[in-house]
Design goal:
313 residues, alpha/beta, Rossmann fold, 2 domains, 5-stranded parallel beta sheet, 4-stranded parallel beta sheet, 10 helices, 15% strand, binds N-carbamoyl-L-aspartate
Length: 313
């Protein structure tokens, strides 16, 4: 198999194991390109990639830009205030405009779940979901998988703890789908108010849920700490931030509860001192910076597989 089944990448939920492995394998070869002195390949020459972001972004937007330009695509970056495009109809008109300008790939981030899906259905161009509300953030999930596989040599059979605001986290949802499809066991941890009821049913037998950080960390090979999504919480879901930090932050004491070679991850942006201490974030077990650099290779792979392979539009 050398192609993805869909022209769009909307969610890891809808990819199968072979497709995820195809992307990870392709990303590994692009990682070599990224490390070369001349970091460009001509795979997307003549194609245009357009970033359309309705929400703030630093690493995801930059990473797509670098990925597109390293594949020799033309790149357009559009940041739209949330208020200017509110209605579905307006959004579709907007994306149709870009298609009329012959854009090959539209990378879209929105605070509304389903935006990328809707755009993908309306367009002939490929659409990549760069985060849709609380739903999914598939390229973040893929770069997390890539980082884990590179550092641990495998994914199957690992215990991965995901800690924090699971309810509001699109990263958690993409990680859960990706990890369980590749055979990892996922332990979700946070205050009860941040753990969606019934989330275990996403992958029966592969997911456990706990309110106790010690339980999540025990025997963990990997721990992914999540940012508290204050902008998505309608009200505070815990008594005080001090309390949250006391029970759920990863620091140099708590980390001793996990395996001695546990891999520490965070999708960023971090609230240092709130969900993770600087000592751990910058310490020897941390792969947080690697996550960011791997993001470029992974996004190159996705762009290439959607728009650069023979026969792909
Ligand atoms: C995440 C996001 O936007 O969903 N950030 C990212 O893309 N690296 C996580 C977050 O905002 O906490």
């Amino acid at each position: 198999m050398n192609r993805l089944k869909s022209k769009d990448l909307i969610a890891l939920e809808s990819l199968d194991k072979a497709e995820i492995e195809l992307i990870l394998g392709q990303a590994a070869s692009f990682k070599e390109v990224v490390l070369r002195p001349v970091k460009k390949v001509p795979a997307l020459r003549g194609k245009t990639v357009l970033n359309l972001f309705f929400e703030p972004s630093t690493r995801t937007a930059t990473s797509f830009q670098l990925a597109a330009t390293r594949l020799s695509a033309d790149f357009v970056d559009i940041r739209v205030g949330e208020s200017s495009v509110k209605k579905g109809e307006t959004l579709l008109d907007t994306v149709a405009t870009f298609e009329a300008m012959n854009v090959s790939v539209l990378v879209i981030r929105s605070s509304h779940a389903g935006t990328a899906l809707m755009a993908g259905r309306a367009l002939k161009a490929s659409v990549i979901n760069a985060g849709d509300g609380m739903h999914e953030h598939p390229t973040q999930g893929l770069l997390d998988l890539f980082t884990i596989r590179e550092r641990k040599g495998r994914i199957e059979g690992l215990k991965v703890a995901i800690v924090g605001d699971i309810t509001h986290s699109r990263v958690a949802r993409s990680d859960i789908w990706g990890l369980t499809k590749l055979g990892a066991k996922v332990c979700l941890c946070g205050p009860r108010t941040m753990l969606p009821q019934g989330i275990e049913s996403l992958a029966p037998g592969m997911i456990t849920v706990t309110e106790k950080l010690e339980e999540a960390l025990e025997g963990a090979d990997v721990v992914q700490m999540l940012r508290l999504q204050m902008e998505r919480q309608a009200r505070f879901l815990f008594p005080t931030t001090r309390e949250y930090t006391r029970f759920y932050a990863l620091n140099s004491d708590k980390i001793k509860l996990a395996k001695p070679d546990v891999l520490v991850m965070h999708p960023g942006p971090m609230n240092r001192g709130l969900e993770i201490s600087s000592g751990v974030a910058d310490g020897p077990l941390s792969a947080i910076r690697e996550q960011v650099s791997n993001g470029v290779a992974v996004r190159m792979a996705v762009l290439y597989l959607l728009a650069g392979v023979e026969g792909a539009e």
